[in-house]
Amino acid sequence: MEIKVCGMREPENIRSLISEVNPDWMGLIFYPKSPRYVTDEKAADLKELPVKKVGVFVNETEAEILRKVDQFGLSAIQLHGSESPDIVKSLAKKTEAELWKVISVGAEIDWQSLEDYLPYVSKFLFDTATAAHGGSGRKFDWEILKTYPFDKGFLLSGGLDEESADEVLALRKQIPQLQGVDINSKFEEAPGLKNIEKLKNFKSRLIHAGTQN
Ligand SMILES: O=C(O)c1ccccc1N[C@@H]1O[C@H](COP(=O)(O)O)[C@@H](O)[C@H]1O
């Protein structure tokens, strides 16, 4: 199971995250309206860190996304707005960073509407639909994912907390394309500042329980 810890910002907190939690991915939010927004001044501190970084963007221009990939040394681009397949296709021609398309889940998902993204994305990420685009701390009804029709892997997101580990593992037994989780606001002391003990606890529950089954 992959673990992405999103919404990181503070250098000391990031150092602890890398040395004590060692997640597969660390997310930096480049959406100016987010309380977890990472400014350009942080680039020098963050570029060379020994962790794969994912930039989170909401309907951002292509030029700005590509600038941030270079400036922050991003390994993946998480498109968390209403970016069309054409935008993703165009980005795919211009960067080697992985492209992840977020699908905001409300009552239903039109699976057919995801087909045009398939050639260009490394994975999908399912999050709860919210006016603020992300970071809602709310789960959606995961039952809907049992009808996921593609082989492409995806991450599960939206309000995951320490208690979610067992449920995630149970879901994975039914949906092998569920390749990991993205965790954020439920592990925070303040926006952009994570509780390292909670993260360690969640990871060990996910890994330990995963090896028992
Ligand atoms: O966290 C934010 O502020 C944010 C703002 C705009 C787009 C995405 C954002 N975060 C992403 O939201 C999901 C779920 O977060 P949560 O667990 O519900 O707090 C996660 O993918 C973050 O990358």
UniProtKB/TrEMBL annotation:
Name a GO molecular-function annotation: isomerase activity
Root EC class: isomerase
Record EC number: 5.3.1.24
This protein's UniProt keywords: Amino-acid biosynthesis, Aromatic amino acid biosynthesis, Isomerase, Tryptophan biosynthesis
Q: Which residues does the UniProt record annotate as the domain N-(5'phosphoribosyl) anthranilate isomerase (PRAI)?
A: 4-202
**Top-level taxon of origin:** Bacteria
Q: What name does UniProt use for this protein?
A: N-(5'-phosphoribosyl)anthranilate isomerase
Q: Which organism is it from?
A: Algoriphagus taiwanensis
